[in-house]
Amino acid sequence: MSKIQDTFLKIGSIDRRWIFLIIAAVVIVPLIFPVGLPIRPTDTTKNVYDSIEKLPAGSNVLLSVEYSPSTRPENHPMTISILRHLFKNNHKVFITCLWPDGQFMAQDAINQVAKQEFNKTYGVDYVFLGFRPGNEAVVKGIVSNLRKLYTVDVYQKKIDEIPLMNGINNFKDFDFLFSSSAGFPGTIEWVQYASDPTGIPMASGVTSIQVNEVMPYVQAGQMVGVLAGMPGAAEYEALIDQKGSATSGMDAQSVAHLVIVLFIILGNVSFFIERNRSKKY
Amino acid sequence: MGHPYLYEDRIVMLITMFLMGSTLMYNVRYAQMGGEFYLRPIPGLKAVEEAVGRSTEMGRPILYVPGIQDMDQVETVAGVIVLGHVAKMTARYETSLNVPVSRSIVMKAAREACRESYMIEGRPDMFNEDMVHYLTDDQFAYAAGVNGIMVREKPAACMYMGKFYAESLILAETGNSIGAIQIAGTASQAQIPFFVTACDYTLIGEEFFAASAYLSKKPELIGGVRGQDMIKAAVIATIIFSIIIMTLYDNTGIGFDVSQLLTIR
Amino acid sequence: MIWKRQIPILIVTIVGWTTLLGWFIDQPDIQEFVNDDATQWFDILASFAIILGALNLIKLQVQKILYQKPGWIYSVVAVMGFLFAITAGFFVKGVDDSVAQWGAHVTTDGTLFKWMFDYMFSPMSATMFSLLAFFVASASYRAFRIRNFEATLLLVSGIIIMVGRVPIGSVISSWFVMYLIVLSAGIYINVWKKDMNTTFVFVAVGISIVTIAGFMYGWPIDKPGIFYLPAIQEWIYYYPNVAGARSIMIGIGLGIFATSIRYILGIERSYIGE
Amino acid sequence: MEFSTILGAWVAVFLTFGIFSYLYKDNPFYKFAEHLFVGVSAGYWTAIFFWTQIQPNLFGRLFPAKVYGPDSGTPFIYNLLSFISNSVFPEGGIDKGHDQHFIYLIPLALGMMMLLSLIPSINWFARWGIAYTVGMAAGLRAYGYLNSNVIGQVKGTAVNIFNSSLPFFSLSEPSIFNNMIIIVGTICGLLYFYFSKEHTGILGKASKVGIYFLMISFGASFGFAVMGRISLLIGRFNDLIKFSSTEYHHATFWVLTAVIAILGYASYQEKENKSQIADTGQDSVQEEE
To answer: Which keywords describe this protein according to UniProt (chain B) (predicted)?
Structure first.
């Protein structure tokens, strides 16, 4: 018995570098040899899907891209899936960025979805307004007067010459807002300064870490729903029935979580043995 | 209508603000005139002085991180204020203080705060501008830099007070691996759990804003905390009251929808 | 003295009152200042200030090099990196004016600045960020110990979210969870009563009840819902979690409000050294 | 594939492993990457701030192209600036779609004061800028947070608890039980933050319940954090897998081998040295408690 206990104690005081190595291994192996676990959408994800599905065709949807390459694995699949869904239902998409690097991310998504997959026409089906500095001031600017903030689009084309921008003057001219966000400025600023004051419905795709922060807003009905991290993105991919990078990461994600839980259990076992022994002596 | 310069739909908010503001002011005045209040102890704040003492014994520096955001965040300002108090202690105990910052305006403000503290404690000779130094504006480059400082200088105590994002865990885990006493204070909701698990003491949300009152012991600040508590009681009362009204409104149909009142555009 | 103390306090008061009351005043000039100019001014100010910061960084690194302090060779790397970024930012664009004007070069493909962003800046950011995956594992390994009731709550809700959120959670049957609960309750009873017999009887009865119920209902994977991980995790993060998060939020909201009012009214002045 | 892309991939892979090597211990690769990162990012943000703020939003408002048409010409001061730096001040004014706003001389002045505060005798110049920042932050945040964090949340909590259309208990759907959980949790959580009264008696019990809710919330946050961080690691490994392909001349494979070989050799050497000289006890720092 005490031999087994000693082994557990040894595991309990293991050098953390071994943990690092095991984590690296369990993430990389399923990436190379995927299993394909089934994906079951949660309610918060379904709510986002349903509210976009409910929009009448040709609605004006504002898509705000506010993440950088560092959280691309989580946010980018959401942006792609949402764009696919919007274009499939023939909505008009307006894209803005609150983060400077968001512009690169949005450009990537547009190239992939709007240009290659759906062959949409720029200026008729979608507009890329781009980044403006000023954090929450940009949100407020869009709410009060979009045309003052954006005189030209990303490609330096005059807004007045873009047919889709006809009749779009401020935030109230949109029917829906989706913010793909990784922090400040992002979802919370959109809730505080845009959606709350105007009552335009919004949903958001956030990194896992932000879920807890935005959940009270969802619960209070200030947002219709939220896509939570990479699993949220995978669920959305399942809902629109187009698999992407989030789905392929889910195996690695599942295994890694299980391994961490295993670590926690082992840690607790050795903790108990230690505590019992110190009580005895 | 009659008030061309006023947003009428925000009038509820204006009244709320006025009421809350006057509650605060009332308590501040009351405290200034000598009224005494009880403040429950916050272990994390007691630990600040212990940590400074321990650093002195070990002859190692103290690392203070005032968050990674600029002075336009209230948390950062609060962090700089707490830094002022910590600097007073380091001046008293003659411990060296290291404050890497990630925003230049914060650098300026933190220097002013430290300089003043060292002056007040009568140790301007110990103050050195470069104890507050800039690394970079970038979140992760800053984290990498602070990491480097931690592993190489091995501070005896690390304090993180301000607005934090993902780098919080990098800092706290590295601090843990070098065996430093760690005290954190933040209102960044997503980061509180990491600080709670990896640091010795954590000031959670509102506790962090009350820190400067606790540390300075100035009556007007303590009065402010007391005022905040009164507002909190009012908030709880409002919650309960609105629940009762809502329940009556829905079930018996009395004609008053409180959720309308609480909706501010 | 007046320039150093009174004027700054006056600035805080005036700007603070304007931005605060600006929310209520329906006047175009004030609205424009509050909605747009106020933060723009700060951004411009911060942009000037960053030059100060950069100078401070370079000064300290150059001092290290000049006095050949330990690790000075790495300071050379830092200075070189800074100079490289400045060169790419202000002096060498790498493309013609027809591709990108100065100013647009920071976001245009093919410029030296964008190359630096793609292959130096963003991989390093992303890697620093992904270091967190390792740290979060070692932190949870060490921190999630069942020390007391609070720590147990932390651990249980953490594990349920971790497992229930990902696809593997939805293939774990609720019956498996029930067996697990019976077993852990058994461990608890053993610790509490210190009597093998009681524990054995409890576990045996528990397992038989679960098994009989399972046969009666035909082992559906997601029923009863209160033992199905995806359902429990959703409940946790929709209800108890929101309650906890909301109380912190309200606290933070009050804290920030009260602190801001203290600054505006000049009760707290130590941020400029008082 | 272009040479610059392949070179970029190699640089990226090298720096990635440089930072990953920190997980083993503080070592020259990490020190190199860390210092390079700090230096490059300081320069990067200086350039970004200049080209996205100072040039378009400040200079663009002081010297907008809208005002200086081809016939009216630009003022002397602009011509002088343009002579100094044609890239910042192009001919014919700065075209960023702004009107002329001379009020932006104020932030210019505050910014210049910030820079001048480098001179020790007038280092208090910075205080004005700091004061502006704090004042602005206080005014804007006080309203925003009060509205969304306090009033919005109070509104979210204020529901009809005895709603006859709701079931008493349901796990994931709204139910009376779930409403009660939120109300009790929120109120008890708030009481935990009550400072000016001793936490004994009913207040003590309520604040204890409040802590339980906070802990559940922290646990959930932690669970989500694990999820997010692992996702990012997956993304990073996906990139490394991409760079290990033939197109990039197997950059990942070679760099990884080289880093491991060098670090392994170094640690072998260190062990040799240690067995000869007495252990200084310097290395125990990385260990867990």
So the answer is: Membrane, Transmembrane, Transmembrane helix
Q: Which of D81, A68, A101 is nearest to C113 (CA)?
A: A101
Judging contacts by C-beta atoms under 8 Å, the chain D residues touching residue A13 are 288
Chain B nearest-CA residue for C131: B170
Contact C158 D145 (CB under 8 A): no
pLDDT digit string, tens, across residues D83-123: 888 888 888 788 777 788 889 999 999 999 999 988 888 88
- Inter-residue contact D271 to D265 (CB < 8 Å): no
Chain D positions touching A17 (Cβ under 8 A) are 23-24, 286
Q: Which of C3, C10, C13, C19 is best to mutate for the D interface (most D CBs within 10 A)? A: C19
Q: Which residues of chain B lie closer than 8 angstroms to D44, CB-CB?
A: 138
Q: Which residues of A touch C159 (CB under 8 A)?
A: 261, 264
The CATH superfamily assigned to A43-243 is MTH777-like (3.40.50.10160)
Task: State the Cα angle at B40 between B36 and B46, rounded to 5°.
Answer: 110
pLDDT for D279 equals 42
Tell me which chain D residue has its CA closest to the CA of residue A76.
Answer: D235
Taking CB atoms and an 8 Å cutoff, what residues of chain D touch A74? 228, 231-232, 235
Chain D: residue whose CA lies nearest to C37: D104
CB half-sphere exposure, A280, CA atoms < 13 A: 6
- How do residues B33-58 score in pLDDT, each as one tens digit? 988 888 888 999 999 999 999 999 99
Read off the pTM: 0.88
CA-to-CA distance for C210 and C228, rounded, in angstroms?
14
Average pLDDT over residues A168-188: 91
The Cα B59–Cα B148 span in angstroms is: 19
Sequence letter at residue C213: A
Name chain B's partners: 3 or more CB pairs within 8 A: A, C, D
Helix (H, G, I), strand (E, B) or coil at B224: helix
Reference C138, options A114, A90, A12; nearest CA is: A12
Q: Tokens 């604040």 label which residue?
A: D207
pLDDT digits (tens, 9 = 90+) for D173-193: 778 888 899 999 999 999 999
pLDDT (mean) for C218-233: 83
Name the token pair of C53.
Answer: 């910061």
Quick check: D218 and B192 CB within 8 A? Answer: yes
Q: What is the DSSP string of C81-117?
A: HHHHHHIIIII---S-TTT--TTGGGTSTTSHHHHHI
Q: Chains that contact C by 3+ CB pairs under 8 Å?
A: A, B, D
Of residues C81, C240, C249, nearest to D149 (C-beta): C249
Structural tokens at position C120: 């130096």
Q: Are A70 and C125 in contact (CB under 8 A)?
A: yes
Enumerate the domain spans of chain D.
105-158
Residue D60 CB neighbour total at 10 angstroms: 23
Residue A19 corresponds to which tokens in the numbers above?
């943990």
CB of B170 within 8 A of CB of C127? no
Query: Which residue's structure tokens are 């033939």?
Result: D246
Question: Which domains does chain B possess?
Answer: 8-36+219-261 (no CATH), 43-216 (3.40.50)
CA–CA separation, B60 vs B158, rounded Å? 11
Query: Chain C contact for A36, CB < 8 A?
Result: no
Q: What is the pLDDT of residues C73-90, one digit of tens each?
A: 999 999 999 999 999 999
Chain D environment of A253 (Cβ under 8 Å): 227, 230-231, 234
Mutate to test the interface with C, among D20, D147, D214 (most CBs of C within 10 A): D214
Whether B190 and A212 lie within 8 Å, measured CB to CB:
yes
Residues 37-96 of A with CB under 8 A from C: 37-40, 42-43, 68-72
Rounded to 5, what percent of chain A is helix, strand, coil?
60, 15, 25
- Contacts with B11 (C-beta within 8 Å, 6 or more apart), sequence order: C24
